[in-house]
Amino acid sequence: MAAPLLSSLCCRHSLRHCSPRRFARNDLSFFRSLSTSISSEKSLVLSHVNEDAGVAILAMNRPPANSLSLELNEAICTSLKEIDTNPKIQSVILASTNPTIFSAGLDVTELISPDDQRLPKFWNSLQQVYIDLYGSRLAIIAAIQGHAPAAGCMLAMACDYRIMYGGGEGSTVDGRKRKSHIPTIGLNETQLGIAAPPWMGQLLVRTIGFRPAERALALGTLFPPMEALIEGLVDDVITEESFSPSADTIHALEKLLPDPIRNQALSLVMQKAFQEAELYAKISPQARVASKLVTRSESLKDMIASREADTEYFCSFICQDTVQKNLKKYVEALKKKSKSK
Ligand SMILES: CC/C=C\C/C=C\C/C=C\C/C=C/C(=O)SCCNC(=O)CCNC(=O)[C@H](O)C(C)(C)COP(=O)(O)OP(=O)(O)OC[C@H]1O[C@@H](n2cnc3c(N)ncnc32)[C@H](O)[C@@H]1OP(=O)(O)O
């Protein structure tokens, strides 16, 4: 049986939580803890639930770019754990409060001249985010309104379904008119002079297939939306022409979204993500989770078995002089680009 296998693999909130006993439990402490953790604009993530629909939202909220720091990684895991404890919730939308950046990947400042106590903790927290998303009993829908490079792309790939904003001149992302914004997605690590770790590279292989992944990893390709769709890196691309939501969807979204991002109820990506999340939430949880185990348990088992070695390799790799030099150059260029705007 697959379920016991995964329960021994994934600690805390994972596919193992799909047992009928778990679903039957009515844990009121969950509601109390959730209500204190949501809707503070200072939180690194905002989360909220719509129990009628069986859908939750988890929105990354670390300006300016949702780059993944130790603290953001931990906040994602904690929030997912809280949502997981609610038996009425079957789907989660993973989103961003920033309408043009889903996540800029690892916070590169964590990698430059790193503290040797913090660096392994940081890497462990990223591994945990992957394990918790990829091994979750919940169906997770990535609402990718903005850029998703490197570890940002990993977050999306660890979800069950990916919806990306198609961009375009004069389109609306969060309900307001804005100038053209075309997001990109991919594992661009080689552009920074580093390589994606094996488990992340293999995730790309499982998502888009061996040869396309081999090429994309080598070149560090960032795909615009339609190319990402053709490669199978995302499942859907939303443009104004391609999708018109119902009033019911918008109403349900308004009930779901926490205050600071309620205006995202007008975002087409969010609307489509909500519809998809509802679709998953209607499937029998046991059957849905069992099918997820079929495709994910082996790779999760391998990743968890090599976790310590992966951390050791990462830490020694990052501390190499040439890697540090490349990273510093990359960050300087990033800052220069940002200042020149
Ligand atoms: C075998 C190998 C074994 C082990 C593996 C070893 C290593 C591999 C490790 C891990 C794999 C994963 C790696 C990563 O995720 S590395 C991060 C990769 N990310 C990027 O390359 C994205 C960089 N950012 C951008 O390209 C743009 O910011 C973006 C397109 C996302 C948005 O552009 P936009 O024009 O909208 O915003 P900006 O003005 O550029 O940025 C705003 C602001 O945010 C700061 N920023 C952006 N990205 C990051 C980041 N990743 N980390 C920290 N800070 C970031 C940027 O500097 C601006 O700040 P400021 O200058 O203060 O205005």
Question: Which key phrases capture this entry?
Answer:
globular, disordered N terminus, two-stranded parallel ribbon, 2-enoyl-CoA Hydratase, Chain A, domain 1, 341 residues, binds ligand LTMAUQNL, alpha/beta, 6-stranded mixed β-sheet, 8 strands, transit peptide, 14 helices
Description:
Its main location: mitochondrion. Homotrimer. InterPro entries: ClpP/crotonase-like_dom_sf, Enoyl-CoA_hyd/isom_CS, Enoyl-CoA_hydra/iso. With 341 residues, the chain is α/β, with parallel strands linked by helices. It has a single domain (10-339), classed as 2-enoyl-CoA Hydratase, Chain A, domain 1, CATH 3.90.226.10. It contains 14 helices and eight strands. Helix 4 (70-84) links the parallel strand 2 and strand 3. The longest helix has 21 residues, at 285-305. Mean pLDDT is 87; it is low at 1-5 and 8-41. Ligand LTMAUQNL is lined by residues 64-65, 67, 100-101, 104-109, 147, 149-151, 188-189, 192, 194-197, 200, 313-314, 317, 334-335, 337-338.
- N-to-C SSE string, H for helix and E for strand: HHHEEHEHEEHEEHHHEHHHHH
Query: How far is the first residue's CA from the last residue's CA?
Result: 55 Å
User: Would you identify the CATH architecture?
Assistant: Alpha-Beta Complex
Provide the residue-averaged pLDDT: 87
According to CATH, the fold-level topology is: 2-enoyl-CoA Hydratase, Chain A, domain 1
Helix content: 40-55%
Shape: globular
Which small-molecule ligands are present, each listed once? ligand LTMAUQNL
Quickly count the helices: 14
- Residue windows where pLDDT falls under 50 for at least 5 positions: 1-5, 8-41
**Which structural category do the helix and sheet elements fall into?**
alpha/beta
Question: What is the strand content?
Answer: 5-15%
The biggest sheet, with number of strands, parallel, antiparallel or mixed sense and barrel status, is: 6 strands, mixed
Mind telling me the CATH class? Alpha Beta
